[in-house]
């Protein structure tokens, strides 16, 4: 092959690559705009032993202070349209760089969700950071809004005609830098043991999938259903591959989004939540409300 022909082939290949890249960037840009405005509902069916009638949970997570449309109206409309029996607020409603006044956003959101259905409020890392900075007075206001707050504790509640143990934690179900003895003496271990030994079906609200999914968590624990957020679905999703990055798991996270059967009896659902991460927009990753139908 002569040199002129080789040069022509290289130039043509570079042109095709540049065109593909331009199409990809254009598609990513369009997707970022759509993902900034639209909310989908993703439905899951979960069978829970002992339940007498079905119960619908709407899970709202990782808003990071975002406001959809006028005063979040599209978000409330989307949640109300699901006709939930319970709304789970699953953490990181506060923005990452919060000010003291941001509690008003979270309290108002809780109040307005409570007008739609009873709210179960679990902490994310942004909530615990806010409490560390400004105290826990805001949590009393969440309770005054009518929500049940789950903060490293559990409650046995009547749901679907039976008793269900609901717990909320940001703990770790594996040593996580502690010795085996320290871990077994920890509040994390005690809490998860009480969830595991529940005589009733147990649902854990764990903002971090890490709480039970990482290390040997799936071998240690047996909790019927674990609901998580925090990953934002990997923020940018590569079609056919998965999420690009999740905090605490890094690049190409294994537990990025959707359903996972962690062991024979423990199912985990991770919602991708409702915002991007800091300045990184969601791409190919529509914000969502997870709608979970607990079935007898
Ligand atoms: Fe988080």
Query: Mean pLDDT across all residues, rounded?
Result: 95
N-to-C series of helices and strands = HEEHEHEHHEEEHHEHHEEEEEEEE
Low-confidence stretches: none
Shape: globular
Widest β-sheet, arrangement of strands: 1-16-2-3-4-5
User: Ligands bound here?
Assistant: fe (ii) ion
Quickly count the helices.
9
| Structural category | alpha/beta
User: Helicity range of the residues?
Assistant: 25-40%
Rg, rounded, reads 21 Å
Distance between the termini: 71 Å
Summarize the biggest pleated sheet.
6 strands, mixed
Number of beta strands? 16
Residue share in β-strands: 25-35%
Walk me through what this model shows:
By secondary structure, the protein is of the alpha/beta class. The protein has nine helices and 16 strands. It has helices spanning 3-35, 73-81, 102-114, 125-134, 137-144, 180-184, 187-196, 210-213, 217-220; strands at 40-47, 55-60, 86-89, 119-122, 148-150, 153-159, 162-168, 202-205, 225-228, 237-238, 242-243, 245-246, 250-251, 258-263, 266-270, 288-295. The protein has a six-stranded mixed beta sheet, covered by helices on one side. It starts with a helix and ends with a strand. The model has no long low-confidence stretch (mean pLDDT 95).
Defining traits:
alpha/beta, 296 residues, 9 helices, 25% strand, six-stranded mixed β-sheet, globular, single chain, binds fe (ii) ion, 16 strands
In short:
Helix content is 32%, strand content 25%.
């Amino acid at each position: 092959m002569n040199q002129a022909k080789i040069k022509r082939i290289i130039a043509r290949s570079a042109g095709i690559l540049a065109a593909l890249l331009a199409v990809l960037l254009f598609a990513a840009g369009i997707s970022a705009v759509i993902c900034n405005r639209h909310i989908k509902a993703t439905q899951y069916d979960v069978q829970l032993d002992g339940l007498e009638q079905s119960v619908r949970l709407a899970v709202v997570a990782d808003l990071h202070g975002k406001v959809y449309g006028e005063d979040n109206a599209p978000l409330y409309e989307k949640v109300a349209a699901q006709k939930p029996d319970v709304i789970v607020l699953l953490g990181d409603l506060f923005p990452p760089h919060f000010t003291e006044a941001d509690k008003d956003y979270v309290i108002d959101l809780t109040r307005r969700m409570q007008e739609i259905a009873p709210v179960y409020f679990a902490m994310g890392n942004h909530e615990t950071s806010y409490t560390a900075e400004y105290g826990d007075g805001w949590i009393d206001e969440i309770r005054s809004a009518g929500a049940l707050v789950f903060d490293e504790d559990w409650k046995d509640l009547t749901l679907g005609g039976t008793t269900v143990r609901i717990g909320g934690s940001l703990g770790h179900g594996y040593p996580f830098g502690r010795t085996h003895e320290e871990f077994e003496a920890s509040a994390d271990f005690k809490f998860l043991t009480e969830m595991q030994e529940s005589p009733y079906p147990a649902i854990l609200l764990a903002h971090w999938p890490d709480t039970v999914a990482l290390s040997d968590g799936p071998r240690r624990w047996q909790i019927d259903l674990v609901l998580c957020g925090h990953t934002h679905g990997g923020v940018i999703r590569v079609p056919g591959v998965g999420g690009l990055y999740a905090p605490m798991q890094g690049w190409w996270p294994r537990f990025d989004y959707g359903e996972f059967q962690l062991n024979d009896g423990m199912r985990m659902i991770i919602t991708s939540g409702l915002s991007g991460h800091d300045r990184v927009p969601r791409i190919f990753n529509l914000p969502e409300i997870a709608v979970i139908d607990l079935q007898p």
